[in-house]
Amino acid sequence: MNSRQRRGIILLLLSVLCAFGAFAGVLSVISDVNSKVGSETTAYRLKSDIPAYQGLDAGQFQKIKVPKRWLSRTAVTDLGSLNGKIAITPLRKGSLLQSDMVVDRPALEEGDQEIAIMIDAATGVAGKIRPGFRVNIYATFEGRDQNDAPQSKIIVSNARVIDVGRLTALEPKKDDRSRQATEAVPITFGLKTKDAQRVAYAESFASHVRLALIAQGSDTTVSPRDRTYTLEGDK
């Protein structure tokens, strides 16, 4: 074997050793990454923005895989836990869903029943009334004849809001050409039977039904003399 052949063999052996070294280095990097990342688990990312106090369903979220050690303890890993939940704050597209972003939907109390009515979005809701809030329900009635003055009445005081629906376009009534198309929101209340009857009556016969938000912690008692108002009463 001449010197040229010996140099070739030595270079070949060095190349093999370098290849083994590089392979070992790659394995070491992969092992280090795996030790830092660890196993993966399921998480859920929002597909779009979700307004506060809106009900949640599985179609609003995208399933993704996230390293388990990087995921917070409050991260939601099972969409089944969202049953009966609503968003407590506005949720932003791309955010990971956390359990502290949602709360239980307000439930009916014993003896209550759900009743929903459409409330004018501009004069009755204005985006401030949310599930769990308390409101007074006002209804305005026209006089039965020319001698009767119109009246404004608190038909239900301290009514508990169970749910607030989506804005809905209202078409003008066929028998009322003066009414313009507007937007309304379906509001669901949890009420006793008598109060539910009052609300149903007002929706059918009152010219307007409005809600007044009650501040938390304030006195919700309304005296009988303050439940009915007429313009003549201010004179």
Written overview of the protein:
The protein has 235 residues and is of the alpha+beta class. It folds into two domains: 40-104, Type Iii Antifreeze Protein Isoform Hplc 12 (Alpha-Beta Complex), CATH 3.90.1210; 113-234, no CATH class. It is built from three helices and eleven strands, in the order αβββββαββββαββ. Strands 5, 6, 7, 8, 9, 10 and 11 form a seven-stranded antiparallel beta sheet that branches. A two-stranded antiparallel sheet has the order 1-2. Strands 3-4 form a two-stranded antiparallel ribbon.
Structural class: alpha+beta
Tally of extended strands?
Answer: 11
Helix coverage percent of residues? 10-25%
Taken as a percent bin, the fraction of beta residues is 25-35%
Outline type: rod-shaped
Count of helical stretches: 3
Order of helices and strands: HEEEEEHEEEEHEE
The total number of structural domains is 2
Average pLDDT score: 79
Distance between the termini: 126 Å
**Biggest β-sheet: count, sense, barrel?**
7 strands, antiparallel
Flag low-confidence runs.
Answer: none
Assembly state of the chains shown: single chain
Radius of gyration: 33 Å
